[in-house]
Structures are given as structure tokens and as C-alpha cells.
Amino acid sequence: MTATPAARPRDIRPSIAVEDVTVRYSNGVTAVEGASFALGPGTICALVGVNGSGKSTLFKSLMGFVRPAAGHIAIAGLEVRQALKRGLVAYVPQAEEVDWNFPVLVEDVVMMGRYGHMGLLRIPRQADRDTVGEALARVNMLPFRHRQIGELSGGQRKRVFLARALAQGGQVILLDEPFTGVDVKTEDQIVALMRELRAEGRLMLVSTHNLGSIPEFCDQVVIINRTVLAAGPTATTFTPANLQRAFGGALRHIQLGGAALHADADTRQLTVISDDERPLVLYGEEDGKALAGEDAPLDRQDARR
Amino acid sequence: MIDLLLEPFAYEYMQRAIWVSALVGGVCAFLSCYLMLKGWSLMGDALAHAIVPGVALAYLIKLPYAAGAFLSGLFAALAMALVRVRTQLREDVVIGIVFTTFFAVGLLVVSINPTSVNVQSIVLGNILGIAPEDVVQVAIIAGVSLLILLARWKDLMLVFFDENQARTVGLDPVRLKILFFVLLSACTVAALQTVGACLVIAMVVTPGATAYLLTDRFGRLIALAVTMGVSTSAIGAYLSYFLDGSTGGLIVVFQTLLFLLAFVFAPKHGRLAAARAARRPLPEATP
């Protein structure tokens, strides 16, 4: 394998192909049914849906924890198991999944990304140490490498796990709620890093409730509720109509227009859609179509909380 | 004076007791590093009590005691899994019911056949009187476990820390967890001989807990825990010659003393360090 996290094995073209996938748990609950979407290299894709819509099930099947009852998943053209064996899939966990009291230092955690590149006894070589250092430097966490992980702030913790994904050399990176409990500055840093990784040709799938920031950095969106309701480029897929289908009543939807907003006969409307995190704010002629065309009169603002 | 101090080493049974105790103490301490991090400490206790009937029956029908212990530990684990899946009861309740049941059956077997096995040696351990063929069993169990742990400690650490990551680097968490519990059962069986069923729990919890207060690195945690496990066990066995007291009791008292020392004096996580930090006017800002 290559020594630098940035380099990519030549024959690998990161992609995810989910075809008609159904996941059923042993208690008989069908978590996902007939889900299909496809993503290619150099992509940041948002995975959007209410809690319990099957987002985590989808992540689990991409990481091979659950086997689909029907359908097929391919990562970089390989079976999930093969892709995992080659270290192609990296995972950035939610903060709640991690035991922050575990006696490991920042650099130990990042080194865990290198295990797949080491021998049976997991003895790191100089190349592994260098890769860990580079990955930490890239997320600006090098000065913290000897801290115990629980001593870090929320944003720093996220960056450590991103560094682990980098050190692993993952070409397909799954991020589970990367912006939860993170301040705006860190969110911007993470987004900037993700853009760099996209420029390197990597594929990132991000599950998030931060609807407002999705159009900023995601070029693809998969909207899910037990099945894939819509998938495609953000501009055409991430519409209030699709979101309404996915979230139904679970979404706060505020619309202002006419006399409430304008003193004249302006027909433009202000639409605020929120999943209790950073809301999506739209301003334009008609809420559903406003996002669709580049030439539509559209002003999007960020309402940061 | 020197002669008196060296006296235990003149006896073969004392030499044996010291090195067997040290070996078992070391492996149990190794396992304790993992067990205490997962909130599974009581599993060690449950296993230790659950294997008693197996040991009693094995002595009764002249099988190697390790085989009986292992089978009965397996049955206990299955019973716990069954009760848990079939009822809504909490884990501690299930453990409590199953291990006391097994322990009771064990005591019953022993009391019905008092000649076959000494109940005291199961419950309290009897390393000073360990039979040579039992020494071989204990040494093989502990030695093999130690080798496996030395080879796989990093993989086990990853599984205990982050199962998802373990999978993404190609490990099988379920298989490694099963491996861990097999090792734990095996070492519980071995520790039965040194400290007895009642005190096994201390051997597989205390050294790791003490080391946890002393370091933030897993590798050092293991090194510290194993050092403490080996030294307390060897010293406990050695001193039991003079005090004519329970070896298990001594070992565990020493382990607890070390824990108390760490609890008060540990450089970063001890009470004194915490008090010092609280006295400081402004805590060090984290950039």
C-alpha cells in the first residue's frame, strides 16, 4: 500500500452502487426496502432522512455488518467484504458511539486506521508512523497527538477520527452525523477538508440533519425513508417537495410571503425548512421550484444558530 | 534472617506455588485490562462461580478438572444467553440468578461426595497443596492464553474500543470477542487453583483498574497491570508460607493496596492530583 494518505491505488475508482437493497433484521423488521442509488468518485453525498428512516442500516450494510436480504451492494466495483479487506471503506463514527474514557492517545486512535496495512502482530513501521503524523497534521491536530482522547473538545474529537480515515487511506468515507455537537468554525474546517478530499477523487457519504449546509458542500443527495425516495444532484433532488415527502410532519416548515413579507406585490416567498438543526432557508418565486434552476430568482442564506 | 527469608524456596511445593501464582496472576491481569473497560467485570465473577459444579463433578468421575470446569462454564454462558433472550430481565439479574444456581449445585455435589474434593480448595483456592498434574494443566492454560494475548492484544483493543473500525480494517469482532471469553473462562479455571472461586473476580478486575489510574496508553496499561498481577501473586504466595494464611486472601489484599496507592497518589488521575488541579486558580486552557 502507499505511504501517503493522499495517494490512491491506481486501479481503484471509488464508487458505491446500491441496487434494489432490502435489509431485514432477525426480529422481522424491514429497515430498508428496495433501495437503489449510485455514486461515483469525487463526490460528497448527503444522506438525509428522519431518525429511523434507515440511514444507519444503510451505513451498516455498506460496512458489511448486515447482509441485505435482497439486492446487491458494490463498493469500487467489489463486494463489500472485498472492499473492506482492501481498506477502501473508512468510517467516522458518531460521538456517542465512542468510549471517550478508553485509555488511548490521539495518535493511537489514528494508528488504528493503519491496522489493515500491518502484519498480524500490528507492529507499526516507520511508514505507518509517518502516515499517522501526516494525517494528524492535515486536520491540524498534530500538537494534540499525545493527549488522551477524552481531553479533547467536540470538534477536535471529530478531527481525530477524520485523521484516522485519512491514515487508513479510505477511498469511500462514511461520516455519521459529523456536525453534531460541533461549533461553526469546526464545521467549516471539516467541510473544507471534505472538499479537498473530493478534489482528490474520494467519495464521501455524509448522514446529516444539518439541512442548511447541504447545498453548500454536497453535490449529491440521497433522501431516504425506508427506501430511497430521491437520489441525484443536489440542485434537482434537494427540493422542498422531496424533503416534505421524506420528513412529513417531522420537519418544521415555515413559509412567509405576500403581505407578511413584502409591502408591494412581490410574489417571492421565504421558506425555512428545519430538522431541528441548521435550517434550510430559501427565498424565491415558488418554494419547490426555486432551487431547481440556476436562473431562478433565488437567494439562499444561512441561518446559523 | 536471610536463611529464614529464603526458607520457602527450599521446598519444591513453595517454588511451584510461587511461579504458578505469578503466571496465573499475570494472565488474569492482562485480561483485566479489557474486562474493566466494558462493564463486564461481573462476568468474571459469574464464570468463576459457574465452573464450581464442573470442577466438583470432574473430580468425582476422575476427569481432568479443567475439562469439567470448561464445560460447566459453557453451560452457564448458554443459560445466561437463553434467559436473556427469552425474558426482558436485565443483565445483572440474569447473571445473578445463573451463577448462584451453578454455585449452589456445585456446593451440593461437593457436600454429597465430601471425600472426592475439598470444598474449601475450590472456593478459597489451595495453591500450596496443588497436585503436580494440576500444575501442568494450569501452566498450559495460562501459558497458551498469555501467548495468544501477546499476539492479538492490539486487535482485541480495537474490537473493545471501536467495533465498526475493527470491521473496516478486516477484523471479525464476534470471533475476537468469543476468543476473549474463551480465554477469560480458561484463566478463571486456572485462577480457581490459586485464589479460589470467590476471589477470581479481584484477579480479573483490580490490576487493570489500578493501571487505568496510572496511564492513558493501552500498551502501558497492560504492562503495568501484568507487572502488578505477577508481583502481587508471587509475593502473596511467598508470604503465605510465613503467615500460614490464605494465599488468595494475601494476593487480593496486595492488589487492593496497590489500587489504594494509585487512587490517592496517581500522578494524573489520583485524588491528590485532582486536589492540586482544583487548587490551581485557572485550569490550563485547551486551545
From TrEMBL, chain A:
* UniProt organism field: Bosea thiooxidans
User: Which BP terms from GO are recorded?
Assistant: zinc ion transport
Q: Which Gene3D superfamilies match?
A: P-loop containing nucleotide triphosphate hydrolases
Domain named ABC transporter: residues? 16-251
Extract the PANTHER family matched here: IRON TRANSPORT SYSTEM ATP-BINDING PROTEIN HI_0361-RELATED, METAL TRANSPORT SYSTEM ATP-BINDING PROTEIN TM_0124-RELATED
Family membership, please give it.
Answer: Belongs to the ABC transporter superfamily.
Q: What name is this protein filed under?
A: Manganese/iron transport system ATP-binding protein
- Which InterPro entries does the UniProt record give? AAA+_ATPase, ABC_transporter-like_ATP-bd, ABC_transporter-like_CS, Metal_Ion_Import_ABC, P-loop_NTPase
TrEMBL record, chain B:
SUPFAM superfamilies, per the entry: ABC transporter involved in vitamin B12 uptake, BtuC (SSF81345)
What topology does it adopt in the membrane? Multi-pass membrane protein
Q: Please give an example of a GO cellular component term from this record.
A: ATP-binding cassette (ABC) transporter complex
What Pfam families does UniProt report for this protein, alphabetically? ABC-3
Location(s) in or outside the cell: Cell membrane; Membrane
Q: Which UniProt keywords apply?
A: Membrane, Transmembrane, Transmembrane helix, Transport
Q: Which CDD domains match?
A: TM_ABC_iron-siderophores_like
Query: Which GO terms fall under biological process for this protein?
Result: cellular response to iron ion; response to zinc ion; transmembrane transport
Q: Which residues form a coiled coil?
A: none
Kindly list the residue ranges recorded as spanning the membrane: 17-37, 67-86, 93-115, 135-153, 174-191, 221-241, 247-266
Entry-linked PANTHER family: ABC-TRANSPORTER METAL-BINDING PROTEIN, IRON TRANSPORT SYSTEM MEMBRANE PROTEIN HI_0360-RELATED
Protein family: Belongs to the ABC-3 integral membrane protein family.
Q: What is this protein called?
A: Manganese/iron transport system permease protein
Q: Which lineage ranks, top first, belong to the organism behind this chain?
A: Bacteria, Pseudomonadati, Pseudomonadota, Alphaproteobacteria, Hyphomicrobiales
